Amino acid sequence: MTSIKRILLALLLLIIAVPAIIIGAEFIDHDDAESTAAAPPSSPATEQQIARGAYLARAGDCMACHTARGGKPYAGGRAIPTPFGTMYAPNITADKETGLGSWSANDFWRALHHGKSKDGSFLYPAFPYTNYTKITREDSNALFAYMQTVTPVRQPSQEHALRFPYNNRILLAGWRALYFTPGAYRADSAQSVEWNRGAYLVQGLGHCSACHTTRNAFGATVAKSDLGGGLIPIMNWYAPSLTSDAEAGLGNWELQHITALLKTGVSPRSTVFGPMAEVVSRSLQHLNDSDIQAMAVYLKSLPQNDPPPALDSPQPDKGTADRVMQAGAKIYEQHCAECHKADGKGITPAYPPMSGNRALTMGSAVNPIRMVLNGGFPPSTEGNPRPYGMPPFGQMLNDQEVAAVVSYVRNSWDNRAGFVSPQEVNRYRSIPLD
After folding, report:
1. Preceding peptide of 422 cis, ω within 30°
2. What is the DSSP letter of 80?
3. Any residues with CB less than 8 A from the CB of 88 and at least 6 apart, and which?
4. CA distance 29 to 258
5. 175, 13 in Cβ contact below 8 A?
6. Which of 186, 209, 183, 181 minimizes the C-alpha distance to 196?
7. What angle do the packed helices 289-301 and 193-200 form, to 10 degrees?
8. pLDDT of res. 306
9. CB of 116 within 8 A of CB of 108?
10. DSSP structural state of residue 119
11. What CA–CA distance (Å, rounded) separates 270 from 359?
12. 3-class SS at 196?
């Protein structure tokens, strides 16, 4: 999107923001009153509550954003690129001056549930409060109790580097009026306790929709495509649809294969790479078996009715397609067949199958392109401590050769998908892995 269009959209948000602030002013005190009313009597946190909070912090993968590479745990500073500029995760250690040490349980609840900071200012939705609003007050209190035990680090939070006009928080009033309504998770009485637990984790703490849902021009997830897949902004990895059998839908998977993928990163059906590998490594592998099972039950139950996605690029004529397939077959035989085998069946779980692999046949070919260019590893987990990886071929193969081999694996054996152009490969060649 051009900068002019983005500025026009920002102005539209500003037009919405002013009346939203005026109309919504009466609700500011209501939020505070609700938080106070919901708070339990003040008492020291118990060891059990703190342990529960530590577990929930793992489930929410809080460290992934709030810890800079090489930095102290939860001290913030990690850069989070967005289409609107760069955000910097804040310090959430127990430091009283630069962290959460001076916050109360009510302040913390207001941040998670209402998307507001201690001083009442609006938080940017890069912090996924649109998901965290579903967290119960009990879990919020446990999280807060744990955060108060995190070793204090005196490190002022870095100012966001957002472009004008997005650096004006007043715009968030308009954004919230359009796209955010606070509300805790409500159990579905028609479903089992296990299903509801899985839904609570996926929709709330796990904030799966933050990646697996398309975002609009304002950076808000599109409700009608919830978990329907989307390109992760800036990172340029495609988070596949969880509601489509053509992508990562799990409706026809065996339950034990889903739990294995979530817990270890590998299964007989698939292997996780890219951003999802970090999620499994830092978060999911640390969850107990009952919670992993609950998430698997919920994910398996999602409707699988989404149509196959549109192809990313125009497709070649038959003559050109035949030449690309021949070239791709030679490259595959030379560089890929030793691990993934000539019949594309691989050797699971070490080397994923190519045949029938939906990660290869999605409308967007960005993930296989990036894997060929940059290589990658599944996460190292307790259940898979020494993962097999794929070497990078970006220095060995040119854009035309990468396009040929990716097109080949997308259209061989039982696979039928779109061809990839050299221009599409070049688009992702210079983009870093994260």
Report:
1. no
2. E
3. 76, 77, 78, 79, 80, 157, 158, 159, 160, 161
4. 44
5. yes
6. 186
7. 90
8. 60
9. no
10. T
11. 8
12. helix
Nearest to 308 by CA among 258, 213, 243: 243
Pairing between strand 230-231 and 85-88? unpaired
Cβ-contact 133, 184 below 8 angstroms = yes
CB-based contact 412:340 (threshold 8 Å): no
The pLDDT assigned to 311 comes to: 56
Cα distance between residue 117 and residue 111, in whole Å: 5
Can you list the positions of beta strands (E) in 92-153? none
Sequence-separated (6 or more) residues with CB below 8 Å from residue 245: 251, 252, 304, 358
Contacts of 146 (CB under 8 A, 6+ apart): 50, 51, 52, 53, 54, 56, 57
The type of residue at 87 is M
**Rounded to 5 degrees, what angle do the CA atoms 348, 349, 350 make?**
95
Q: Which of 251, 261, 264, 229 is nearest to 297 (CA)?
A: 251
Q: What is the DSSP letter of 203?
A: I
Q: Hey, what's the torsion of the CAs at 185, 187, 193, 194, to 10 degrees? A: -50
Question: Considering only CA atoms, which of 253, 112, 241, 232 is closest in space to residue 182?
Answer: 112
State whether residue 230 is helix, strand or coil.
Answer: strand
In one-letter notation, the amino acid at residue 164 is F
Tell me the C-alpha distance between 43 and 96, whole Å: 19
pLDDT at 217: 85
**Owner of token pair 């817990």:** 263
pLDDT at position 3 is 53
At position 235, the amino acid (one-letter code) is M
Closest CA to 249 of 316, 192, 186, 298: 298
pLDDT of res. 310: 59
Residue 185 CA to its chain's centroid (Å): 20
Q: Give per-10-residue mean pLDDT for the chain (434 aa).
A: 51 47 41 50 82 97 93 94 92 97 97 96 94 97 97 95 91 94 94 98 95 89 82 82 84 92 90 91 96 97 71 78 96 96 90 89 91 91 90 95 97 93 89 54
Q: How far, rounded to the nearest angstrom, does the alpha carbon of residue 203 sit from its chain's CA centroid?
A: 12
